Amino acid sequence: MGENFPQPNQDEQVQHIDVQHAERVDDEPRHLDLQTDEWTHALAEAPIYKKFGKVHAQIAQGGETLQTVLSDGTVETTNTANPGDVIVTNPGGERYIIGANKFDSRYEATDEDGVFKAKGKARITPNPTGQPIKITAPWGEEQFGGPDALIATVYDPENPDDVSPDRYIIGRDEFNATYVPDTYEDDEVKAWDEAHDEKYEREGKTELLDEPRKGELMAGSHKSNAIDDLYKAYLNGEHVTVDFNGESMNSREIGEMGVDRAYEKYFGYDKESYKEHARLESEAWSAKYKLEQFEREYRAKKEIPELVKESADLINPTTAGEWRDCLKIRATDLYHGADSRSAIDLMKAHSQGVGAEDLKKLMDEQGHSGASHGMVLAIIKHFYKAGDSLVDVLK
Q1: For 217, which DSSP code?
Q2: Where are the domains of the chain?
Q3: Is the full-model pTM beyond 0.85?
Q4: Are 117 and 50 contacting, i.e. CB atoms less than 8 angstroms apart?
Q5: What is the pLDDT of residues 266-319, one digit of tens each?
């Protein structure tokens, strides 16, 4: 990998960054915990996008400290490189640090030294709060985003049902400049990439492309962002027409109405009131989800004594104590004990002499994701008296 990287200048070995104003945004940012079940479900249902375009990259010697600043001036995060990490510069000038293994999986070399082509994919969904946000990023530092930022997690095509625990923020402009829908064919991605290159060359500077393709302005999938982006295009003197969910919207119409009147037309509230309404709606949805989760977990816990009794003759005596603990833990996880119940059904069927094909059919009918399939097999292997035998059948 290293042969394609230019060596960093000595002046860039260590950048001393003042992080005293890392939280300086217009409003106090709202902290989001992206590791909750709610966010796991939201990201599991989020659309998939793929990166396009090229980046510049160099190997870090260790100790370099980078402050990632978005195009709107938001200080997104501060991070320090370890030896062998990679310092990446996106087309819009945003710089960040990434581990070498992750870099190899997300970028591929080009004929030009130090220039790499993006190949990664991500599940991406809009910031639902309507206000500035902050999170604890996978690398342990706080990361910040504006009201129109997006939340992302890496998508692995080989494990499409898995939702990575590595979750992070992407600025709106940075998103528009580096991602396209996964449904785009190679020639569409190439055309989109060339449009960026032409704009950079025409303006003689590294600047993000604001001009949307028709029907693709709202990659973040919310009409409020479309209004904001179209109004921005109007202020830049651009006449942009897009189709959003079958409805035509254009920058001149939005610009002549003004943002508040546009929000009233489409949402029934001015922008500030809409944000408050969206915030309250989001909190109500969160409360409803938590109540439903509490009820599911309570029902699952109530079933534990019956599950222990039902599985008593199936469980290896040496793991019986662990089994009860396992049932308690699985009752409150993402699947609310469904994987434990599935494992018991399979163990019972196997103990009753059900054949291999019928056992496989039973597991298929249980409708597992990649993650729950693996969990069921792990439960069977560890706790069932004939665990190895049944796992060999089901693999």
Answers
A1: T
A2: 2-206, 303-394
A3: no
A4: no
A5: 888 888 888 888 888 888 888 887 887 777 667 767 778 888 888 889 999 999
Question: Could you identify the residue written with the tokens 């394609």?
Answer: 4
Task: Please give the biggest Cα pair distance in the chain.
Answer: 75
User: How many CB atoms within 10 Å of residue 337?
Assistant: 23
Pairing of strands 133-136, 142-145: antiparallel
In three-state secondary structure terms, 321 is: helix
DSSP 342-374: HHHHHHHHHHTT--HHHHHHHHHHTT--HHHHH
- Torsion angle, alpha carbons of 207, 213, 215, 218, to 10: -10
Give the integer Cα–Cα distance in Å for 241 and 238: 10
Which of 241, 246, 381 shows the shortest CA–CA distance to 316? 381
Question: Which residues contact residue 241 at a Cβ distance below 8 angstroms, ignoring those fewer than 6 apart?
Answer: 214, 248, 249, 250, 251
Cα 261 from Cα 250, distance rounded (Å): 14
* Eight-class DSSP state of 391: H
How do residues 23-65 score in pLDDT, each as one tens digit? Answer: 333 457 889 999 999 999 999 988 888 877 777 888 888 777 7
> Would you say 121 and 16 are in contact if contact means Cβ atoms under 8 Å apart?
no
Query: Among 117, 8, 112, which Cα is nearest to 60's?
Result: 8
Rg (CA), the chain: 25
Strand bridging mode 65-69 / 75-80: antiparallel
Q: Is the dihedral of CA 145, 146, 147, 148 positive or negative?
A: negative
Neighbours of 35 (CB within 10 A): 12
For 163, phi and psi rounded to 5 degrees?
-115, 115
Residue appearing with tokens 């600047």: 207
Q: Note whether 330 and 121 are within 8 A (CB).
A: no
Tokens (6 digits) for 76: 């997104």
Contact 381, 391 (CB under 8 A): yes
d(CA 90, CA 118): 10
